[in-house]
Known about the structure:
With 359 residues, the protein is α/β, with parallel strands linked by helices. The protein has eleven helices and 14 strands. Helix 9 links the parallel strand 13 and strand 14. The relative contact order is 0.15. The chain binds flavin mononucleotide. The site of flavin mononucleotide has 22 residues, from strand 4 and helix 10.
Amino acid sequence: xxxxxxxxxxxxxxxxxxxxxxxxxxxxxxxxxxxxxxxxxxxxxxxxxxxxxxxxxxxxxxxxxxxxxxxxxxxxxxxxxxxxxxxxxxxxxxxxxxxxxxxxxxxxxxxxxxxxxxxxxxxxxxxxxxxxxxxxxxxxxxxxxxxxxxxxxxxxxxxxxxxxxxxxxxxxxxxxxxxxxxxxxxxxxxxxxxxxxxxxxxxxxxxxxxxxxxxxxxxxxxxxxxxxxxxxxxxxxxxxxxxxxxxxxxxxxxxxxxxxxxxxxxxxxxxxxxxxxxxxxxxxxxxxxxxxxxxxxxxxxxxxxxxxxxxxxxxxxxxxxxxxxxxxxxxxxxxxxxxxxxxxxxxxxxxxxxxxxxx
Length: 359
Ligand SMILES: Cc1cc2nc3c(=O)[nH]c(=O)nc-3n(C[C@H](O)[C@H](O)[C@H](O)COP(=O)(O)O)c2cc1C
């Protein structure tokens, strides 16, 4: 069995180790959703990761409702991201772009329109807008004739990501955002070809994945799921029945790698209502690299890879506060704690690019 520190290929990406930086929204851009030079510095500091998954990046104005997050639907944004990927590549790293349509988890003060979802619903909790925190608003159901346009915005974003120099893309189908809302019966009550049976609920993910593969090639495409329990108000009555066929479908489509965020009721971030249990089953049907996430310590990460439960491990919060995480894991050095107050912008370098490297 390989170790956490051995190289691995995620499709065409040759990663130097199985240590992956999980996607982390940090909201350090401007209102134009264009990446800034500070972001290039931040990602450059973390280039020793085997693979960096970028923060979630909006595929369209409709799909990006988080204040000060970035997008990849126009040329300015592509240019901003190119500066980021250049720095990562100069330092020998690899980086993919997480493609994000937030579905009902947006605010109209940011997107300029009512949120969209599979069916009318309102997410619980609060969102970051330019005016501060706000309650979620009721989403309307996407019309059947609007769905091809949504698929096309994923394709355009994937094309733009490759233009911006990313090594590939990750389709964000986790955490209660649009694609996850379509997968699960708690948020998908449609009576048309995109709702009801599991096959129908998988349809949008299938169409998006096929179209993105058609644009950039399967060797450049990964996907993220968060299969267990409720996440941001999105839940399924029988997750096994959805996520195992979904993983099998991605395998059949040729998707190069799959990442699972498995929170638990005891999680210290984004608690899920059920214990993780699907990854062993998903591993049987998804034969390419499987990346596991959430709450991994050094020992647990080493063990999961050594025992063959995962091919790689992605680290979220540890990457906020330990830019040199690979070295700290290798040499068993202590980790720095991340400061919760500075996780999200708009606050510039503080808690972003100022976490020191180990000496
Ligand atoms: C500040 C912050 C921002 C996050 N942003 C994203 C994101 O943009 N996309 C995503 O899929 N997950 C996001 N997550 C979830 C992380 O990728 C990861 O699943 C989570 O931190 C659990 O892993 P950990 O226990 O290693 O921190 C975010 C988490 C945090 C703490």
